[in-house]
Design brief:
Blueprint lengths: L1 H65 L2 E5 L8 H15 L9 E6 L10 E5 L2 H9 L10 E4 L3 H19 L3 E5 L2 E5 L29 H44 L1
Antiparallel strand pairs: 1-3, 1-4, 2-3, 5-6
Length: 262
């Protein structure tokens, strides 16, 4: 009986050791998996940062490439080659928009998309940014020709601007002034009303010509005129009378002195 108990005790100890060994193995394995996962996660984060940085550089590069471009819509496709298209665009700038342009002002131009029944837009690249800005400022002059001009934005920026259009519409309905600048919605803050209650009224300040409700204040205007013309003449005559009194007093004093000497 004792032998059986010892044998059972030995088996129990072996089982406990086996369980401990398995537990330690599991812990070691989990630690290694966690270390590997952390390493992979760190590498992945580094790759994501690199990709994000490269995307920003590509966006900036594409923005610089397109910053001297405009897109003209509605120009009839009558040209047969590049030179004829170049002449059509130059005539549009010179004759319709009244902006002097030559071949030197245009770096390149081409139609966008495959030829079809619809009129393809023309993308124009200018030699200088100054010329592009001048064209954009006068783009409304093309309305009589059923043509219109837009800036050349990358596809992702165009998609974002379409989303911002709905937001801009909502803000305008609220009475706010907004506009879209590249890929951002700019809301112009209203001018702050002047709080006259916080301003200290000076004693020498002139009266207001108009009341708070926009009504012409006739009395204040008359008071202001009195304070200017009437007071001026009264002061002037007052000074004159004072001088006369001084002179009369001096004359009487002189006369009395001469009588005494006699």
């Amino acid at each position: 009986m004792d032998n059986i108990l010892q044998l059972l005790k030995k088996i129990q100890e072996d089982l406990n050791e086996t369980k401990e060994s398995v537990r330690n193995s599991e812990i070691n394995l989990l630690n290694k998996i966690n270390e590997t996962f952390d390493h992979v996660q760190s590498k992945l984060q580094s790759l994501e940062d690199t990709v994000s940085s490269q995307e920003q550089r590509l966006d900036l590069l594409e923005k610089r490439v397109r910053e001297r471009n405009i897109v003209i819509f509605g120009v009839q496709e009558k040209e047969r080659n590049y030179d004829e298209l170049n002449k059509i665009i130059l005539d549009l700038f010179n004759d319709v928009m009244k902006i002097s342009c030559t071949d030197l002002d245009i770096q390149s131009l081409r139609r966008i998309g495959k030829k079809s029944e619809k009129i393809r837009p023309v993308i124009v690249t200018f030699s200088t940014l100054k010329r592009k800005i001048e064209i954009l400022r006068n783009k409304k002059s093309l309305e009589t020709q059923n043509c219109y001009i837009k800036e050349d934005f990358p596809p992702n920026i165009l998609a974002k601007r379409r989303e911002l259009q709905n937001k801009a519409k909502e803000e305008r309905e609220k009475g706010k002034k907004v506009f879209i600048k590249y890929d951002k919605l700019i809301i112009i803050p209203p001018k702050e009303a002047t709080n006259r209650a916080n301003k200290r009224n000076h004693s020498g300040s002139p009266p207001e010509k108009y009341t708070r409700h926009g009504i012409y204040n006739k009395e204040s205007t008359q008071i202001q005129k009195k304070n200017t013309l009437t007071s001026y003449w009264n002061n002037k005559h007052g000074q004159t009378s004072t001088r006369k009194e001084k002179f009369s007093t001096a004359d009487s004093a002189t006369a009395s002195c001469s009588g005494t000497n006699k």
